[in-house]
Amino acid sequence: MSGPKKVLLAAPRGYCAGVDRAVIxxxxxxxxxxxxxxxxxxxxxxxxxxxxxxxxxxxxVEEVDEVPEGxxxxxxxxxxxxxxxxxxxxxxxxxxxxxxxxxxxxxxEAVRFARxxxxxxxxxHEGHEEVEGTAGEAPDHxxxxxxxxxxxxxxxxxxxxxxxxxxxxxxVDETMETVRRLRTxxxxxxxxxxxxICYATQNRQVAIKxxxxxxxxxxxxxxxxxxxxxxxVEVALEYGAKAAYRVDYVDEVKQEWLDGVQTVGVTSxxxxxxxxxxxxxxxxxxxxxxxxEEVRTAEEDLMFSLPKELRTDPAGRRDERALGGRGRA
Length: 329
Ligand code: SF4
Hints:
four-stranded parallel beta sheet; 10 helices; binds iron/sulfur cluster
């Protein structure tokens, strides 16, 4: 090994505006209505965030039929299908919709293209909650395309009326490859009106690409079910990192990963609190990686209003935390 040990810290990283807003929504619902507040699915895909909210009184359920009639339920940042909204209403639940506005935007696109009788090729991962929610807006019009290879096989009814949309947290490069292959087969394929892969996903991928080319090892903080965190590992490897691993917590960092490593890249997924990254940096510092250089490729200042159910207090006054949800790192 030549030269000093060093960390390249990617920025932006960590919390996006949609995650911040969803977590604040649960905290605010707990403050306002008292525990327990039910949350359908993990509010965001991060085990640390979910555990902390559980300690404050949130109860996470898989489906709304597990929530007592009349109780408050928060829908997660990944969004829900209209069938879930109806099921909650039928149970008399008081729903608070923490769906990220950028996911809602894709839902609206699906509704509009289905209304115009387009067949929608939804690039995304079958079974992911966001894909279930978006597909559920127009189940008869949506076909999920999981990968570039699936683009070679998918069949459509009318190749002159096809549009592609996507999950918000995919690899930009892989999605473009899927679309390229779809367009080879369906030249009249329409593009979404604007990018469906969200700003946070794109920004984190651009930053890790820059870090990865100079890194012997990349550590991505994020949970296994976090799509954008898993994508960051893939992108790091694709862009030159000699090794890349995902960890939920610092104690998962293995000493042997650091053998012979001069430069460590560090980043985190869009659902990860910064404290978890700082714990990894402290561990690396203890191992001699005290020189930390931030590699910033974008500034983020997007903020979203809280879900409408929480924007005013019970007396109808605007809540002082009505603007929640800021991308931070
Ligand atoms: S990753 Fe993107 S779509 Fe998902 S919550 Fe964050 S801003 Fe919204």
